[in-house]
């Protein structure tokens, strides 16, 4: 063994495994494994990229003032309380780095997004997994798990990979009941898919112990760009501003994200289409006896009788070039997470699941 050893906790980390994007021997692969928007990147963002390419010899903005101003304008927020990150992943990691460490605990829920645990372990903290109730975040279980050592609580709302959501009253109850030394992180990666949902912005505006994270990777269809943002109280922005790398976002990221946030027509169209197709796919799977929780996001969690059946169906779909996500890593071995694709992809998935079940030829 090499005498050069990482700090304690690092070797407990299982690396993040992303959704596959190819299948050997299959040419027309439809990727429904990473919750990407099938519309493709907004034209507005693509045009913005072309406009700034001649400035690439210069360093990018360090304060992201223009992007923050655009986000603030669209959401009616204070730009000084927004910080941008290289994907919301980076913001999750920054929160763990700044607020947790050896001897402290970071709470995440049973099926919570994998990066909460990875970032907590990287910071040297102990991740604490709290059970969910019927694949829903359980506020009472979270409150029961809080100790003197707890520093952060992460919940995604809507949640990945279940798609379930807490209502505003439940989130408010959680924020109000947490002791003052615990910061609640509301991860709103899928918030735009829920009509009229502010992702907790009103709560953040009035409380010292809540932050909200958002991303351009989902409804904005810019996962390849890597841009996320956080809205929080001033004291948190002060802390995160001290540890952020000076050029954590590049010129192309800043320009495309700014164009995309101003393109709310794209967001609206994507939301409406997603809701329509998510309902369709949920009903079609339910009709053939595959349980689906009511999802508020851009994916559905299809629950099979057994883990073997889920694995066999995933293999069948893969052989047809349809990539969906096994969520065994999220402790849901009987389930497959299927991103809501475009209409032909949704129809193909349902047809192939029916074939797998022996219902269609
Ligand atoms: N939070 C949740 C709940 C997610 O599902 C994801 C992406 N899978 C992220 C955060 C990270 O998003 P980003 O691309 O902004 O890093």
Walk me through what this model shows.
- This protein has two domains: 10-40 and 265-356, Aspartate Aminotransferase, domain 1 (Alpha-Beta Complex); 43-262, 3-Layer(aba) Sandwich (Aspartate Aminotransferase, domain 2).
- It contains twelve helices and 13 strands.
- It has helices at residues 43-52, 65-75, 88-99, 114-123, 139-145, 168-177, 201-206, 234-243, 251-261, 264-287, 307-319, 343-356; strands spanning 30-31, 82-85, 105-109, 126-130, 150-156, 183-187, 210-215, 228-231, 291-292, 299-303, 322-323, 325-326, 335-339.
- The strands form three sheets. A seven-stranded mixed β-sheet has the order 2-8-7-6-5-3-4, sandwiched between helices. Strands 9-10-13-12 form a four-stranded antiparallel β-sheet, covered by helices on one side. Strands 1-11 form a two-stranded parallel ribbon.
- A hairpin with a 6-residue loop joins strand 9 and strand 10 (299-303).
- Helix 3 (88-99) packs parallel to helix 4 and helix 10 runs parallel beside helix 12.
- The chain is globular, with a radius of gyration of 21 Å.
- The protein starts with 29 loop residues before the first strand and ends in a 5-residue tail after the last helix.
- It binds 4'-deoxy-4'-aminopyridoxal-5'-phosphate.
- Pathway: Amino-acid biosynthesis; L-histidine biosynthesis; L-histidine from 5-phospho-alpha-D-ribose 1-diphosphate: step 7/9.
Order of helices and strands: EHHEHEHEHEHEHEEHHHEEHEEEH
β content, as a range?
5-15%
Class by SSE composition: alpha/beta
Cα Rg: 21 Å
* Spatial strand arrangement across the major sheet: 2-8-7-6-5-3-4
Give the overall shape. globular
**Distinct compounds present:** 4'-deoxy-4'-aminopyridoxal-5'-phosphate
Pfam family, one: Aminotran_1_2
Cofactor: pyridoxal 5'-phosphate
Organism: Palleronia caenipelagi
Protein name: Histidinol-phosphate aminotransferase
């Amino acid at each position: 063994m090499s005498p050069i050893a990482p700090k304690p906790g690092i070797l407990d980390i299982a690396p993040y495994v992303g959704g596959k994007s190819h299948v050997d021997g299959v040419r027309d692969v439809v990727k429904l494994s990473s919750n990407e928007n099938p519309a493709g990147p907004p034209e507005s963002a693509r045009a913005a990229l072309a406009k700034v390419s001649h400035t690439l010899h210069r360093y990018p903005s360090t304060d992201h003032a223009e992007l923050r101003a655009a986000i603030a304008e669209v959401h009616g927020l204070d730009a000084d309380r927004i910080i941008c990150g290289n994907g919301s992943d980076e913001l999750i990691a920054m929160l763990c780095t700044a607020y947790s460490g050896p001897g402290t605990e970071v709470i995440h829920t049973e099926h919570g997004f994998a990066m909460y645990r990875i970032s907590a372990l990287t910071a040297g903290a102990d991740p604490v997994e709290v059970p969910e109730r019927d694949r829903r975040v359980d506020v009472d279980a979270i409150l029961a798990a809080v100790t003197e050592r707890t520093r952060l609580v992460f919940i995604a709302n809507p949640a990945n990979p279940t798609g379930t959501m807490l209502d505003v009253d439940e989130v408010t109850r959680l924020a109000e009941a947490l002791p003052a030394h615990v910061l609640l992180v509301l991860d709103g990666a899928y918030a735009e898919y829920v009509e009229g949902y502010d992702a907790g912005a009103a709560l953040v505006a009035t409380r010292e112990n809540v932050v909200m994270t958002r991303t351009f990777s989902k409804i904005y269809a810019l996962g390849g760009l890597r841009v996320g943002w956080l809205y929080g109280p001033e004291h948190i922005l002060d802390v995160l501003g001290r540890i952020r790398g000076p050029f954590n976002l590049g010129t192309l990221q800043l320009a495309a994200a700014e164009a995309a946030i101003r393109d709310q027509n794209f967001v609206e169209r994507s939301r409406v289409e997603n809701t329509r197709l998510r309902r369709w796919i949920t009903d079609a799977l339910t009709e053939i006896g595959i349980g689906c929780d009511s999802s508020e996001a851009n994916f559905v969690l299809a629950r099979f009788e057994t883990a073997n059946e889920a694995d066999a169906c995933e293999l069948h779909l893969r052989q047809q070039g349809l990539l969906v996500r096994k969520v065994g890593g999220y402790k849901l071995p009987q389930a497959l997470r299927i991103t809501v694709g475009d209409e032909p992809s949704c129809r193909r998935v349902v047809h192939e699941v029916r074939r797998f079940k022996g219902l269609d030829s």
